[in-house]
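agent> Task received from the user: take the single chain below, predict its 3D structure, and emit structure tokens. No templates, no multimer pairing.
agent> Plan: (1) validate residues, (2) run structure prediction, (3) serialize to tokens, (4) report one or two observations.
agent> Step 1 OK, no nonstandard residues flagged.
tool_call: predict_structure(input=
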Amino acid sequence: MLSHEFAEYVRDRPADNRLEHLRRAGRLGALARYKIYGNPGTDEGRRKAGRILVEWIRNNPDLARLQGVATAKEIKQPPFSPLLAEFVGVLIGDGGVRNGFQVTISFDQSKDQEYVQWLRRAIKSLFGLNSSLLLRKNNLGGDIVISSVKLVRFLEKIAGLRPGNKLRNGLDLPAWIWTRRSYQIACLRGLMDTDGGPFIHRYQVNGKWYAYPKICFCSMSEALRSSVCRLFLDLGFHARLAKSNLIFIDRVDEVKRFYKIVGSRHKRHLELVGSIERL
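)
tool_result: status=success, residues=279
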């Protein structure tokens, strides 16, 4: 019944019945609204109304902005490339999706300043987004923070990264990394610059000290360790998988070749590798 028809209907009722008709109409209207939006006085009702509102905003972003609603900012969605592959490697290593609207990458304030600046330029180049720095006061750690709902959705789509614990979510390399050698090299560089790197192995035999370089990668994810081993092997390196969640490259000639083929964005990694010739 239309509103003006209902008004005429109520006006024609005897005066003592009008209030009852209004109460009945109110109850019917409330039931209809509860059916659509849920009871606004309960948590479930508020969640249901919130979901409906979010869906409306997604379907009507321009109208939502005209109404003053803050909507998700657009991002560049880059095609597959070596730079995107390296960024995915970095995220798998020291990064993560904190929640539905923030991506973070951890770093060491005392060692990674130049690397952090490179990462922030890469983020701007890939996605057109600015990032901020969150520095911890109680230690030397810090985070690059990127706030973008659409970046979170994009990373889940192309890399399987989503909010929550990376290990429990099934941490591994996305399938497209294996489609090109350039993607494999770039992704491995991102992984090694965050969760791996070179070191000098020193030991003593009969009172004489020996030293030679090795490469090490560490991950608690068995699936990821298997994939990184495969990356090394596909690129012609002899990887040794240890029982302590570590992967090693032991041969000196292969350590040198690794940094010629794969390289590093870390100045300190390259400086250590440069010392190999003096050993």
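agent> Step 4: summary for the user.
The first strand starts at residue 95 and ends at 97.
agent> Done.
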